[in-house]
Amino acid sequence: MVNGIKFDCWGCGACCRAIACTFLDGNRCRIYAKRPDICRVGYSFDPEVMTAQQYLDLTRDVCKQLEELYPPKATVVDCKS
User: Fold this and answer.
1) Which one has a higher pLDDT value, 49 or 3?
2) Where are the domains of the chain?
C-alpha cells in the first residue's frame, strides 16, 4: 500500500512492456518487491486532485488500455509431449 492506495496488479506486464523495462521477465517483474517508487501505483496519487477511488478507477482503465496495446506474452507450450 502506497499513499493509502492498495492496487491489485493482475501481473500482465503491459505497463512494463510499454516502457521497455529491463527488469521484465516474461510478464513478471524480477525486482517487484524492491521496485522503484515510480513503479508503485500509489506513488503518484494526490488526494488534492482526485479521490482514491477515482484514482484506482482511472488506473484500472489505463491498465486495460495498455494491455490491449501491449498484450501479455503467451506461454510457450511443448505440443510434442
Assistant:
1) 49
2) 14-69
